[in-house]
Amino acid sequence: MLLETGRGCWWGAKSHCTFCGLNGGSLAFRAKSPDRALEEIRHLREHYEINFFSAVDNILDMAYFRTLLPRLAAEPPGMTFFYEVKANLSAEQVALLAAAGVTTIQPGVESLSDHVLKLMRKGTTALQNVQLLKWCREHGVRPEWNLLYGFPGETAQDHADTLALMDAIWFLDAPSGYGPVRLDRFAPYHEDPAAYGMTNVRPMAPYPYLYPFGRDSLDQIAYYFDYDHCDADQPLPDPGPLVERVRRWMADEQRGALRLLRDGEDSLVVDDRAPAGPRGLRLHGWQVAAYDACDRVRTRDGLARMPALAHVGADQLSSFLDACVAQRIMVRNRDQHLSLAVASPARAWLAASDHDAIEAAA
Fold this sequence. Notes:
alpha/beta, about 20% strand, five-stranded parallel β-sheet, disordered C terminus, four-stranded mixed β-sheet, pyruvate-formate lyase- activating enzyme
């Protein structure tokens, strides 16, 4: 059953993604009150005996993490939901999504390159995208995400960075789709194409076959457009290797796993990624604290300032991080570090306030 709890895009109203033409002139975000949203969900479930709801919202209202989602978590079991979300969610928020029955999300990942994400104005980084994919695996939330390429200004180095990161997270959920960026009406690309290195903007090739009108009318009717790049001396990198790797990732059903297990005061990283596994790597003492801290993106200096690591020398910490990257249980992007092993079993992340809200709603 399709469900609508919000319209517009609160992120787009702040920083309109360059390629996004959704919402047209009504980008301003507005959402139903949690009371109304829950009442409608209950009505649909009882009247139609439907338990799966697919929200058509372009983006989940962040206020719902304090209001609607804890109340959904207190509902009788059986209801499941799909929502589109921004990719910079916290581990606690992913855990709450799972508790509320949001079993499938479409996060705005779009790329695994910091530079391309900046070209999009997504407001996220590649490692933030990876940490979300990792937390989704931990909490049993399926991320359906797209990998886009062909943005004006994209470089061969962007593709190389993407391929390297893709190989490191092969065991996580592959994209559900991929393709070149499209120029859509209402997107910043369409409003000022020259500013983004686009020229000869014209309705996509099928439009003359769909509508028996001249070019001027088609320009007014079309939502999808073709274009050329202004700088012919710097062509976009060949997407062939990227596309081939994505296809292999999507088709691979033997990706293995990378799990983080607790063993007393130690942690055990179990690596059974094909063809490397299985093997176990044991972390002791301060190494456990450092690896756990990198469950979300951390810099080396940020780690060094943690009280639990105050006694660890700078060289010792750097050597540990280098070893983790070399063992492929951590990824590094410049001075940002992210541990890759998925906590097993999933951690209980609901805060006391969330438990209070659930109990009050019940």
